[in-house]
Design brief:
Layout lengths: L9 H15 L1 H7 L4 H22 L5 H16 L7 H12 L5 H14 L7 H22 L5 H21 L1 H6 L7 H6 L4 H6 L5 H22 L10 H20 L13 H10 L18 H8 L14 H24 L3
Helix pairs in contact: 1-3, 1-5, 2-13, 3-4, 3-5, 3-6, 3-7, 4-5, 4-6, 6-7, 7-8, 8-12, 8-13, 12-13, 13-14, 14-16
Protein name: Phytoene synthase
Keywords: Transferase
InterPro entries: Isoprenoid_synthase_dom_sf, Squ/phyt_synthse, Squalene/phytoene_synthase_CS, Trans_IPPS_bact-type, Trans_IPPS_HH
């Protein structure tokens, strides 16, 4: 008897998107559990499309440019109200319509993936930031819109957070990227450190020079994490703990890299369950920021301008005054996260 396949519906699409995040991004999933349901569901849909896009390019083999072209067509159909037959496509079509997300934002993500497909390298930090603006800053801006916030200053801080996260990812994955033939570290930094890019790709090995470049990249990320924090108090109260949790967890990845001697060639740096749970609890505490009015990065300014040209009425979220209740939810996560880590440690390698 053939397996029962339910008809597509918003509910089944949301469930499918949530499943993609649970298996594909543990750090984001942990932080997302602090989001109110009204924001969590579209956030899952947004991240599912981003994950789908990234995987579609990475798993295509030699025809990555064709994969990007197909993704651009899927995006066009989603904005035309005729999404493809995939939960992430249908969810994206609903999200961009409901939250008035300009097409320039998801298109920026696909442009960044196109740069990946062509194997682009980055001459300096501004060039790398332009890439990070596309693949991560644009996602931060879209999350702001889902939360009902279109203030340019808050959008600038959301883009800072996205870029910082991407710089952290790059610092963590130097060896993994090199073994896949990819290089994201600024070329001028490598040159100053006496490192030849092609040699690094051919024989990725830890070295004091490479550790210094990695530390420099993490320092750049930390500046942006500090700036991003100043925008969190302007988000809806219900959303602040989740976004701060994401900021804390990703910054902690950088500290894990530092504890490894800034070695990003060997084992991948991770934030384990107990530490992640502690950061989730810390994310519920009040916070302050001092850089709210800083101008956006030049590389993310065009994303903010795209939102300004695409205004929409603000939607307020239900108030979330029960902070103590949310702390209980965070504490409940500790056992779950610890069990996951225990399972991973005991599983055969």
């Amino acid at each position: 008897m053939p397996a029962f396949v339910p008809e597509p519906s918003p509910a089944t699409d949301r469930a499918a998107c949530a499943a993609m995040i649970r298996t594909g991004s543990r750090s984001f999933h942990a932080a997302s559990l602090l989001l109110p349901p009204a924001v969590r569901a579209p956030a899952y849909g947004l991240y599912a499309f981003c994950r789908l896009s990234d995987d579609a390019v990475d798993e295509t083999g030699g025809n990555r440019a064709a994969a990007v072209a197909r993704l651009r067509e899927r995006l066009r159909l989603a904005y035309a109200g005729r999404p493809g037959n995939h939960p992430a496509d249908r969810a994206l079509a609903a999200i961009v319509a409901r939250h008035a997300i300009p097409e320039a934002l998801p298109a920026a993500l696909l442009e960044g993936l196109a740069w990946d497909a062509e194997g682009r390298r980055y001459a300096d930090l501004p060039a790398l930031s332009a890439y990070a603006a596309r693949v991560a800053g644009a996602v931060g801006a879209m999350m702001c819109l889902i939360m009902g916030t279109r203030d340019p200053k808050v959008l600038a801080r959301a883009c800072d957070l996205g870029v910082a996260m991407q710089l952290t990812n790059i610092a963590r994955d130097v060896g993994e990227d090199a073994r896949a033939g990819r290089l994201y570290l600024p070329l001028d930094w490598l040159d100053a450190a006496g490192l030849a890019p092609d040699e690094l790709l051919a024989r990725p090995q830890p070295s004091p020079a490479l550790a210094a470049v990695t530390a420099r990249l993490l320092a750049a990320a930390d500046i942006l994490y500090a700036r991003a924090e100043s925008g969190i108090p302007d988000l809806p109260l219900a959303c602040r703990p989740a976004i701060r949790a994401a900021r804390l967890i990703y910054a902690e990845i950088g500290r894990a890299i530092a504890r490894n001697g800034h070695d990003s060639i060997g084992p991948r740096a991770r934030v384990h369950g107990a530490r992640k749970a502690a950061l989730l609890a810390r994310a519920t505490l009040p916070l302050r920021g001092t850089d709210r009015d800083a101008p956006p990065l030049p590389e993310t300014a065009y994303l903010i301008e795209a939102v300004a040209r695409h205004p929409a009425p603000l939607r307020s979220l239900p108030p979330w005054w029960n902070i103590s209740g949310q702390v209980v939810r965070v504490l409940d996560l500790i056992e779950v996260l610890e069990q996951r880590d225990a399972f991973r440690r005991s599983a055969p390698s």
